[in-house]
């Protein structure tokens, strides 16, 4: 097993996750099997109880693991399925060591950070690295390990010590360290400054780790003078210093690494010459290079609670992008804070209210994502009502589906007090209820999590057709509340169709309005399994409906399904779907897709 460690210096938010994902993709394109591990030094056991404002979205894996959003990047870039153990946290490590101490596994020893914590970290990495994640038998060839945080952080020190020991444990030729650092350009003089990176590398060496490759983040290509300084003062060969400069979208990053021969530098360190081949990134290159060519926009109104931080909805944005690329449209996401659509805002902040409604009315499609708590709920209900009554394509995810049920009950059934027990515990019309198996005393890991099966009730509905007329699908879930099964009949009698249910038939998974151009809600999170070139079917249908291509999308889905069932080669369909992309504006104020804390990555 070969290991590539990715660390970061100077500042956080440089794009270590994208860099690690790009390294994984590049190595996979060289014919190697790749897995990935993310180390998060925080004390939380996992990301499940953290606010999106703290750490971005919580990404959910097939096994129910609630993990850091970078694992979503790994899955999307490398096209693998990770496990909860691929996300290491300080909380997990300390918990495992303390559990062993309580059982007496240390035989009376004094349990210390060194060697017990550091050994536990090394054992965890080595164990998880050998778990296959690509659907094949046997371990991968290379494990990419990303260390979260910045060199010098107090909470990272046990991990840095462990990784220093680990480099000797696996031996020379099996360990390669890629250090991502910032090379700023001061506007005053217009010169690339290398001193911060020099200090970062010195700090890394002082803690027992020596970088083999330096990946420099900058607004422009690293000039020869700056590269020479870094090579001289950081003691790294000039050919092992690469520039990750600002690009229109992050799909260009693997290409930057390839063009600067980063794979050859890694092959040399890892003794992989003769084993790996030259990278084949033809389809990926077509997708990245055509990103600037799409100009016809499709405007999506994202009505949510955490709209001031785009990372809160990262997987949704990626899924929208994948679908827009497939439909050859330029994605424009208009962020609408849900509470700004409410009448209370009209009284207190009329400008915000007016701006929110202007965006909603100008949208080609309306998306209401998941979330927790009652803030902004009325605004989401208003958005769902607007989309339903004005026949605007609508996609509701998790809470968004539940919102659609509440709105339908209020507006169509006339049940004005219809509500969820999440927002009104004592409501007399509980259309959304707490799941019986849920815990009301513990929050972490107690939701309905991970991959669950959904059975289509008919193959004539839009959702079934988008999934290729399959009998069932497996999608990832993360929720505590569900549609009240006792009230399903009255909803269906009024025209709301629950086209997907769980194996018991009592848990509603997908809803549709048959007489609407596209009005679909999903209890699961389809965005977590969307991939570049393989967009989520529900997102593809949503974007297709928003830009007037739904019939064509449904026809393609049918062709793919029929071809697969007959064993027919469908490569022309695949080629069509992967050779287009988009340059995306997240906000109307020119927020460029892929930017990382202001640095356009």
**Arrangement of strands in the largest sheet:** 13-12-14-15-23-22-21-18-19
Outline: globular
- The level 1 CATH classification of the largest domain is Alpha Beta
CATH superfamily of the largest domain: P-loop containing nucleotide triphosphate hydrolases
Q: Please, how many helices?
A: 21
Per the CATH scheme, the topology name of the largest domain is Rossmann fold
Largest sheet: 9 strands, mixed
Radius of gyration: 25 Å
Measured as a percent range, the helix fraction is: 25-40%
Class inferred from helices and paired strands: alpha/beta
Strand residue percentage: 15-25%
Spans of 5+ residues with little confidence (pLDDT < 50)? 570-601
The pLDDT mean sits at 89
Distance between the termini: 30 Å
CATH architecture tag of the largest domain: 3-Layer(aba) Sandwich
- Number of structural units classed as domains: 2
Domain Glutamine amidotransferase: 309-543
GO molecular function: ATP binding; CTP synthase activity; identical protein binding
Family: Belongs to the CTP synthase family.
Domain CTP synthase N-terminal: 2-272
């Amino acid at each position: 097993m070969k290991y590539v460690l990715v660390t970061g210096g100077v500042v956080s938010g440089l794009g270590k996750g994208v860099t690690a994902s790009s390294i994984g993709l590049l190595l996979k394109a060289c014919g190697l099997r790749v897995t990935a591990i993310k180390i998060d030094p925080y004390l939380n056991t996992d990301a499940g109880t953290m606010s999106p404002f703290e750490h971005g979205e919580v990404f959910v894996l097939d096994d129910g693991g609630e993990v850091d959003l970078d694992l979503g990047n790994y899955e999307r870039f490398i096209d693998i399925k990770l496990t909860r153990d691929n996300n290491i946290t300080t909380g997990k490590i300390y918990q495992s060591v303390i559990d062993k101490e309580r059982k007496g596994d240390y035989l009376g020893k004094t349990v210390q950070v060194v060697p017990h914590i550091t050994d536990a970290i090394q054992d965890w990495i080595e164990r998880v690295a050998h778990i296959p994640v690509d659907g094949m038998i046997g371990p991968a060839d290379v494990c990419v390990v990303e260390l979260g945080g910045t060199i010098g952080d107090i909470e990272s020190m046990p991990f840095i010590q462990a990784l220093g020991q680990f480099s000797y444990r696996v031996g020379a030729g099996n360990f390669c360290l890629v250090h991502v650092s910032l090379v700023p350009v001061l506007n005053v003089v217009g010169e690339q400054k290398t001193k911060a990176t020099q200090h970062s590398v010195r700090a890394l060496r002082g803690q027992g780790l020596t970088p083999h490759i330096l990946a420099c983040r900058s607004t422009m290509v690293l000039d020869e003078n700056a590269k020479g300084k870094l090579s001289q003062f950081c003691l790294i060969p000039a050919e092992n210093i690469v520039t990750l400069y600002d690009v229109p979208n992050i799909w260009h990053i693997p290409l930057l690494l390839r063009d600067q021969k980063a794979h050859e530098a890694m092959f040399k360190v890892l003794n992989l010459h003769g084993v790996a081949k030259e990278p084949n990134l033809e389809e990926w290159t077509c997708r990245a290079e055509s990103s600037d060519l799409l100009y016809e926009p499709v405007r999506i109104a994202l009505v949510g609670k955490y709209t001031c931080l785009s990372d809160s909805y990262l997987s949704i944005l990626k899924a929208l992008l994948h679908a827009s690329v497939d439909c050859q449209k330029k994605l424009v996401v208009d962020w609408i804070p849900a509470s700004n659509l409410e009448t209370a805002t009209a009284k207190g902040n009329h400008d915000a209210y007016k701006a929110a409604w202007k965006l909603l009315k100008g949208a080609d499609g309306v998306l209401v994502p998941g979330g927790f708590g009652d803030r902004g709920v009325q605004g989401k209900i208003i958005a769902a009502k607007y989309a339903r009554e004005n026949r605007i394509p609508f996609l509701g995810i998790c809470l968004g589906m539940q919102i659609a049920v509440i709105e339908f009950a209020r507006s169509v059934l006339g049940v004005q007090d219809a509500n969820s027990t999440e927002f009104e515990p004592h409501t007399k019309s509980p259309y959304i209820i707490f799941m019986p198996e849920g815990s009301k005393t513990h929050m972490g890991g107690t939701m309905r999590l991970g991959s669950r099966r959904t059975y289509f009730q008919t193959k004539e509905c839009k959702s079934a057709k988008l999934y290729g007329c399959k009998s069932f699908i497996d999608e990832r879930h993360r929720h505590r509340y569900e549609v009240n099964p006792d009230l399903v009949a009255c909803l269906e009698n009024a025209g709301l169709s629950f086209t997907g249910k769980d194996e018991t038939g009592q848990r509603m998974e997908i809803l549709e309005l048959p007489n609407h151009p596209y009005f679909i809600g999903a209890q699961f999170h389809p965005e977590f399994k969307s991939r570049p070139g393989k967009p989520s079917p529900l997102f593809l249908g949503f974007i297709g409906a928003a830009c007037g291509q739904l019939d064509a999308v449904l026809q393609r889905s049918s062709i793919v399904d029929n071809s697969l069932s007959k064993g027919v080669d469908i490569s022309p369909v695949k080629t069509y779907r992967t050779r287009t992309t988009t340059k995306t504006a997240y906000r109307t104020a020119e927020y460029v897709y892929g930017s990382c804390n202001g640095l356009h990555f």
